[in-house]
Design the sequence.
């Protein structure tokens, strides 16, 4: 692969990877909040979220 | 039943994402001048479209909250939850736009960033909605939801400015791909299909996480109501 095409490929991979890291990271954060809410509902402890 | 339907929808969404990825990477041909870097387009443009849609949902929720806050408090809370969910998920997609765009721009133009109309107005849009979330996170008191709703409405006013920016002004950002005149549009059918599949996949994914975020917010509202009631009863 020529050097220009290689760098283009790396940038494309970075764009796709960063997209998925952000999306899946957000879903993970939602899952953690859901779990925290389950705990709060069970123990009726105060929550510091929004 | 709801969980089954949601699970089914999630499964179809994941399949669409895989199909969209396959279309973008393996089926769509190399673009003649930009070659592989052009494939960022299949994630960048759908993310922008979904972000705009969700900011519009946030606008509708904000208007709904202001409309119903005195007459129908329960509807107002539902509207507020949609406003927050739309803003937050819109920011996720807008963040992706602001990262994938410069990655493309660095290779296509040799620069990470320029203060042209499209990029600047998109950054302003992102900053407005981040400030919306910061307001909701750090402010306290009964007026927070009202202030946030007003800010959400003003933030949504930037969306048509972002959309029209590369029509109204000369920009570094490429001219509109869709609706930009007789020479615009994707001419290659394989590219068009790849774009269409990715738009559908990202829209489906966005709706899924929007609904999940709405559900989290509704649960939070109910927890807050229960705590307030317990404090009153104590």
Sequence:
């Amino acid at each position: 692969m020529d050097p220009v095409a290689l760098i283009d490929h790396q940038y494309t991979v970075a764009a796709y990877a960063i997209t998925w890291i952000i999306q899946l990271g957000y879903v993970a954060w939602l899952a953690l909040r859901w779990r925290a809410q389950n705990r709060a509902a069970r123990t009726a402890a105060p929550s510091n979220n929004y | 039943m709801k969980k089954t339907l949601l699970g089914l929808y999630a499964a179809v969404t994941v399949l669409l994402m895989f199909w969209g990825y396959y279309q973008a990477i393996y089926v769509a041909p190399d673009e003649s001048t930009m070659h592989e870097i052009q494939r960022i387009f299949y994630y960048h443009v759908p993310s922008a479209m979904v972000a705009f849609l969700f900011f519009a949902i946030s606008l509708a929720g904000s208007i709904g909250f202001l409309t119903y806050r005195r007459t129908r408090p329960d509807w107002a809370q539902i509207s507020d939850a949609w406003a927050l969910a739309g803003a937050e998920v819109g920011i996720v997609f807008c963040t992706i736009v602001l990262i994938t765009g410069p990655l493309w721009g660095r290779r296509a133009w040799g620069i990470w960033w320029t203060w042209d109309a499209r990029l600047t107005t998109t950054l302003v849009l992102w900053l407005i909605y981040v400030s919306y979330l910061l307001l909701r996170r750090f402010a306290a008191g009964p007026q927070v939801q009202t202030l946030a709703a007003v800010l959400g409405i003003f933030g949504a006013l930037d969306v048509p400015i972002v959309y029209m920016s590369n029509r109204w002004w000369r920009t570094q950002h490429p001219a509109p791909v869709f609706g930009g005149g007789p020479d615009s549009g994707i001419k290659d059918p394989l590219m068009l299909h790849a774009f269409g599949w990715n738009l559908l996949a990202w829209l489906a994914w966005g709706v899924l996480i929007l609904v999940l975020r709405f559900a989290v917010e509704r649960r939070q509202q109910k927890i807050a109501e229960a705590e307030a009631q317990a404090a009153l009863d104590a």
